[in-house]
Amino acid sequence: MGRVALEHVTKRFGDTVAVDDVSFEVDGHEFVVLLGPSGCGKTTALRMVAGLDEPDSGTIRIGERIVNGVEAKDRDVAMVFQSYALYPHLSVRKNIEFPLRTRRVPSQERGALVVQAAGALGLEGLLDRRPGQLSGGQRQRVALARAIVRRPEVFLMDEPLSNLDAKLRVQTRAELVELQRRLEATVIYVTHDQVEAMTMGHRIAVMDAGVLQQIGPPQAVYDRPANLFVAGFIGSPPMNTITARVSNRDGQPTIEVPGGSVPVPSPLAPALHRSATSEVVVGVRPEHLRMASDGFAPATVTVVESLGHELHVICRLTDDQMVIVRQAVGGAVPHEGDAVSLSAAPGDLHLFDGGTGARIGAG
Amino acid sequence: MDADRASRSVARKRTGRTVLRYAVLTGLALVILFPIYVTIVGSLLRPDQLATRPPQLFPTHPLWQSYSRAWGAGHLGRYLFNSALVSAVIVLGQLATSIVAAYAFAFLEFPLKRTIFVTFLATLMVPFEVTLVTNLATIVSLGWYDTYAGLAVPFLATGFGAFLLRQAFLGIPRDLQDAAALDGYGHWRFMTRVAIPLARPAVAALAVFSFLGAWNQYLWPLLITKDDRLRTVQIGLRQLRAVSLDQVNVTFAGVIIVSLPLFVLLVVFQKQLVRGLTAGAVKG
Amino acid sequence: MTGPEPVGQSASIRLVERRRRVREAGLGYVLVLPSLVLFAAFVFYPFIHTLYLGFYRTPPFPGLPRHYVGLAQYRSVLRSGAFTSSIATTLAFAAMTVPASLVLGTALALLAHARLRGIGVYRTIFSSTVATSVAVASVIFGTLLNPVVGFLPWLGLQTAPPILENPSWALVAVAVTSVWQSAGLAFILISSGLQSIPDDLLEAAQVDGANSWTRLWRVTLPMLTPTLFFTVVVGSIVAFQAFGQIDLLTQGGPIHRTNVLTYAIYTAIRQDNDEGRAAVLTAALFAITLVLTLIQVRVLERRVHYGR
Predict the structure, then answer these.
(1) Which of A282, B67, B194, C132 could potentially form a cystine with C136 if both were Cys, beta carbons 3.0 to 4.6 Å apart?
(2) CA distance C123 to C105
(3) Taking Cα atoms as reference points, which of B141, B161, B163 lies closest to residue B150?
């Protein structure tokens, strides 16, 4: 099963840089998710691996082979399109068979492989139907069957779940993960849905405006986001970001938050000192914020949302910045207008450079 | 570097294919354009230059008088006027009848609506020739032989137009109708202020399509007019050819004059033209 | 809803409602009336009447009444040699123009369906013949094919007698004129069909390992079949109704070799003043067109793949 490597790949469309000097590697049998908002370049990057677009500069390798300039049909990849791109004039069987016919696999072998692929996805009874007669979920499985029938080196998937309804999406997510583990396939998966990224990938590569922001295992990206963008993109509800300043109180580096202050957590102090910035953004996840009596930031409760299993308490800081606190159901329920004091453990505080957004921290 | 070499060889292959494509495209374009080009050139040559071998492909001393000769001897001014008038009447008539009929089909309820709509569509099945003989007799008995009325009236309604515009009207969201009803819009206001503006692409397409059909009519004007007074431009070409058999340059000039309005139309209204012509073909 | 309405009130509501519906229906009829009147007068009535006229033989001298002969006129006209050869000529003409138009239109559409620089110029050139009318095209080609001022001698293709007077080649010449004139329309129609094929379908084929040729035959053309089918059906109907080219180029000759049905109808009306004969011929033309269209729908539509 193949490795994929992008080395300093750049792609421009007219004046826009869609992919900007992106480099990363995907190991064999690995499930990597390219995550980002619309227009961040993730689909363009995927298409370049597929061979549907060529990079303006940089190298793309599949296996050990440099595939720049190699046509899509010679790259030994399979792709599942967002729209599934099934051939409407062919039956399900012929759809799945298509990649084998183009490579002149003898018909005996073809038949067996098609049955195998169809079986893996539960399509046995639908082989003679046309795509137009299938439901969305069934069509998606045909697209998958067509991709796996050849056992290519790499599977590429472009937002394959986005056209499914919510319930089917959750179910199919699990099925896809199971399929990848079973086939031990190398998968590059593009999505804008951070839940999919967190639950499906071995590693997540976050992109924004053509630039790779961070790549790492889901938990690492969650716990140590490399910049403000990643911090705000991963996690729902998103991480709270509070604009603050750094000052020096009696020799102790302190973060001045609206209405209060908190000492700089000691692991972060050296890096903060090195960066020599005074404008910072403090990041703290909603589940790490507590409403206590001894917090460092006074706030007023504005809205309390109950989700059944937890509360989202939206508070306004003294300078009108808003934060969300996640609180378990069962304790004292805050009310609109309550004055509270926000607090968080020092280890749960993230610091970001106020200008660049980059993480300030050890390692 | 390996990547660069691979890229370059693929780029070369792709360039080769592109060059081939351009070559074939250019070849075919020349074949298609050739008759038009020869016509333009021929209209500017002297009659004796036209028969030279090898033929002259570029007018060194263009003879612009051919155009004025074609205009005069060919009565082209008169014919262009006739064609323009008749076509305009037909286009307006078809637009008017199609818009109101389509409005009725799309927004009103009345008994037998379905049947009547099918009747409209049935007119598309009846080819022009079948009605020819009788229409001729009808027009004559109405006293409209050799009149503008005879040229235009039989074509003032079209099933295709009603079909096309009904589609367009049906595409108008229900919300807009409800909002208009709440605002107290009567049918006339709704039709003129909401429906027609929203269906503008289809209306434009129909107008272009109707105009093309009316301008290019041949058999009917041939049968229904008898002299210069009312002749349309297509029949005028027929006359022009007879008149200037030995003056090919004049004939060519006439052809260019006659085609110019349509060429201008094609360039200006390319999008609407394409939409009108493909309304039936592509299942959308 | 609260309790039941008082009886009198609901009755008056229903009355208002009914009046509104009647008004609406009335308006509906008024709006479709102009079209219906025109259709009745100039489409449906003539359709029936023309068939009926075929039952009456027109006298050779104007002024005399025509007399009823029942099916005899239909029989005599339809059995005549002139009619049979006219049908043969019409069919030959259609056979020469429809496939050629289709192939040419498809070739042009496929070639011009590329993201190349300046492709818009080519597309305009290819659609340009839609701005020519049959008359314009015929006058141009009539001159181009003229033995004295035309281009054939230069290309070394002169025939004896000259092509438009040549019994073996006249119909071909007229067919070429027609194909050229309709190339623009065919190009526009088929191009539209091409553009409606989703890009990702062809990209999927690429990733699935198909080369350009395979993509053309196994994806593009099958997805194009609805458009091609439409072009063939409409093209055949138009070919059967071709008239202007014949009138301007060959007038049915030489020796009736280009005497398609429409020209025979025209001759019957204008030259022979034989209304009855013309009526029979138009009925025959309609019947043949209808049968051929039905055959095409039966045979060809089975091979059409309507996507989605």
Answers:
(1) C132
(2) 12
(3) B141
pLDDT for A275: 76
Q: What is the pLDDT of residues A176-195, one digit of tens each?
A: 999 899 888 899 999 999 99
Q: With an 8 Å Cβ cutoff, are C307 and A98 in contact?
A: no
Q: pTM surpassing 0.95? A: no
pLDDT recorded at residue C308: 46
A85 close contact with C: CB closer than 8 A: yes
Do A142 and A123 form a contact (C-beta atoms < 8 A)?
yes
pLDDT of residue B284: 31
Per-residue confidence at B65, pLDDT binned at 50, 70, 90? Answer: confident
Query: What is the C-alpha to C-alpha distance for residues B197 and B168, in angstroms, rounded to an integer?
Result: 11
Residues in chain C within 8 Å Cβ distance of A88: 223, 305, 307-308
Strands A203-208 and A31-35 turn out to be parallel
Residue B251 near chain C (CB below 8 Å): yes
- Closest Cα in chain C, distance from residue B174 (Å): 18
- Classify residue C112 by burial, with Cβ atoms within 10 Å: 0-12, 13-18, 19+: buried
Flag whether residue B79 sits within 8 Å of chain C, measured between CB atoms: no
B283 touches A: beta carbon within 8 Å? no
Residue with tokens 């329920």: A333
SS (H, E, C) chain C: CCCCCCHHHHHHHHHHHHHHHHHHHHHHHHHHHHHHHHHHHHHHHHHHHHHHHCCEECCCCCCCCCEECCCHHHHHHHHCHHHHHHHHHHHHHHHHHHHHHHHHHHHHHHHCCCCCCCHHHHHHHHHHHHHCCHHHHHHHHHHHCCCCCCCHHHHCCCCCCCHHHCCCCHHHHHHHHHHHHHHHHHHHHHHHHHHCCCHHHHHHHHHCCCCHHHHHHHHHHHHHHHHHHHHHHHHHHHHHCCCHHHHHHCCCCCCCCCCCHHHHHHHHHHCCCCHHHHHHHHHHHHHHHHHHHHHHHHHHHHHCCCCC
Which among C262, C53, C37 is positioned nearest to B154, based on CA atoms?
C37
For residue C94, the distance in angstroms to the closest alpha carbon of chain A comes to: 30
A69, B2: Cβ pair inside 8 Å? no
C101 min Cα distance to partner chain A (Å): 25
Q: How confident is the model at residue A143 (pLDDT cuts 50, 70, 90)?
A: very high
User: In whole angstroms, what is the distance from residue A137 CA to residue A304 CA?
Assistant: 37
Whole-angstrom distance, CA of residue C187 vs CA of residue C131: 13
Nearest chain C residue (CA) to B158: C35
Cβ contacts below 8 Å, chain B against chain C, sum to 263
> ipTM score of the complex?
0.81
Listed in sequence order, the residues at least 6 apart from B135 whose beta carbon sits closer than 8 Å to its beta carbon are B154, C42, C46
Orientation angle between helical segments C170-195 and C119-127, nearest 10 degrees: 130
Within a 10 A sphere around the Cβ of C154, how many other Cβ atoms? 12
State whether residue A74 sits within 8 Å of chain B by CB: no
Q: What would the two tokens of residue A130 be?
A: 């046309």
Q: How far is A207 from chain B (nearest CA, A)?
A: 25
| CB-based contact, B15 to chain A, within 8 Å | no
**Cβ–Cβ contact A56 with B under 8 A:** no
CA distances (Å), origin A114, targets A57, A100, A172, A314: 38, 9, 21, 54
Determine whether the interchain pair C27/B108 forms a contact, defined as Cβ–Cβ distance below 8 Å: yes
